[in-house]
């Protein structure tokens, strides 16, 4: 695979977004409006196109290679850009190798099992890129904020989640977790845009306003989740997400670097193909 020199989004910058075990992140100190070395979207366009070409090529090879699976976890406050990130980051990749799972309020059947039951079933098979739009982290976020289970239950889940992800990683799943970090002001703008645009209104849920009122509780729950479950094998990244194009750029860069580091190769063809004549 050709190494495309990346001039702008350095590894050091991307690394600065990773939550390092033992170095707790404070979300209040991470700027959601950051755009790295780019002043505006126009300046990043060439970089975005390069990354897209790389990602498309890498995904094709990863699928053919058939040795590992890749799990991408997306978490964010309402309007944080989970849907948009899936749409724009994965544009151009082969849908056959990508599987998106959106986790909603658990059904009665799901609730009658342990909280990881529905999640484990949805993890990507070998060769697949699985994307979780919300995830098992809801079980230490919305569940904690609304006390849907007692504290002695949710407080045990951080360790359970670490162990669950360790199991996945030990069995060949590469895990990347992205928290899309928007400001409360930006959420207000995006909620208003949903109200104003007839084509976006379907996304507006009155309940989102109740969650918005609990913003600080959510930030505390997010901080704990990120700090307690970011591991070497399943790292969290805090992605500045007020600017959608920068959010996409950061996720794509990390995705490309991760896929490259796995060094996927096309399988060897059957022997003797040189002599094959198609009549
Ligand atoms: P949306 O992503 O906008 O379609 O909304 C899905 C809703 O499902 C959000 O309000 C989530 O908080 C909620 N949800 C997802 N997982 C859980 C869970 N484990 N327990 C309770 N609510 C959840
Ligand atoms: Mg919603």
Topology:
Elements: H1 11-16, H2 41-65, E1 69-76, H3 82-89, E2 98-102, H4 108-111, H5 117-121, E3 129-133, H6 142-145, H7 151-154, H8 157-170, E4 173-181, H9 184-196, H10 207-213, H11 215-229, E5 236-240, H12 244-262
Parallel strand pairs: 1-3, 1-4, 2-3, 4-5
Helix pairs in contact: 2-12, 3-12
The chain binds adenosine monophosphate and magnesium ion.
Magnesium ion is lined by residues 78, 205, 208.
Hetero groups = adenosine monophosphate, magnesium ion
| Number of extended strands | 5
End-to-end C-alpha gap: 34 Å
Overall SS class: alpha/beta
What is the assigned CATH homologous superfamily? Answer: P-loop containing nucleotide triphosphate hydrolases
- Record the strand order, biggest sheet: 2-3-1-4-5
CATH-defined topology:
Rossmann fold
Overall morphology: globular
Structural features, described:
It is a single chain. The protein has 279 residues and is α/β, with parallel strands linked by helices. The protein has a single domain, classed as P-loop containing nucleotide triphosphate hydrolases (Rossmann fold, 3-Layer(aba) Sandwich), CATH 3.40.50.300. It has twelve helices and five strands. It has helices spanning 11-16, 41-65, 82-89, 108-111, 117-121, 142-145, 151-154, 157-170, 184-196, 207-213, 215-229, 244-262; strands spanning 69-76, 98-102, 129-133, 173-181, 236-240. A five-stranded parallel sheet has the order 2-3-1-4-5, with helices on both faces. Helix 2 packs parallel to helix 12 and helix 3 crosses helix 12 (244-262). The radius of gyration is 20 Å and the shape is globular. The model has no long low-confidence stretch (mean pLDDT 96). It binds adenosine monophosphate (AMP) and magnesium ion. Magnesium ion binds next to loops. Adenosine monophosphate is lined by residues 103-106, 134, 138-139, 142-143.
């Amino acid at each position: 695979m050709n190494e495309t020199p990346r001039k702008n989004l350095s590894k050091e910058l991307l690394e600065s977004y990773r939550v390092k075990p033992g170095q707790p992140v404070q979300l209040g100190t991470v700027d959601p409006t950051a755009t790295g070395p780019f002043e505006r979207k126009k300046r990043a366009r060439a970089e975005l196109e390069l990354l897209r070409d790389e990602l498309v090529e890498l995904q094709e090879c990863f699928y053919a290679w058939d040795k590992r699976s890749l799990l991408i976890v997306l978490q964010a406050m309402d309007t944080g850009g989970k849907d948009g990130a899936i749409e724009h980051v994965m544009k151009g990749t082969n849908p056959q190798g990508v599987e998106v799972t959106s986790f909603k309020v658990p059904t009665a059947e799901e609730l009658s099992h342990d909280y990881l039951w529905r999640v484990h079933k949805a993890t990507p098979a070998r060769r697949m890129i699985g994307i979780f739009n919300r995830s098992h982290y809801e079980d230490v976020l919305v569940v904690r904020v609304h006390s849907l289970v007692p504290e002695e239950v949710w407080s045990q889940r951080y360790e359970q989640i670490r162990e669950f992800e360790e199991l996945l990683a030990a069995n060949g799943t590469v895990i990347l977790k992205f928290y899309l970090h928007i400001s409360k002001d930006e959420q207000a703008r995006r909620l208003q845009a949903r109200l104003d645009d007839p084509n976006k209104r379907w996304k507006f849920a009155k309940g989102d306003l109740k969650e918005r009122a609990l913003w600080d509780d959510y930030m505390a729950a997010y901080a704990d989740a990120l700090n307690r479950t970011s591991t070497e094998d399943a790292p969290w990244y805090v992605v500045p997400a007020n600017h959608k194009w920068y959010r996409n750029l950061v996720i794509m860069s990390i995705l490309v670097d991760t896929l490259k580091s796995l060094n996927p190769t096309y399988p060897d063809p059957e022997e003797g193909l040189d002599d094959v004549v198609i009549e």
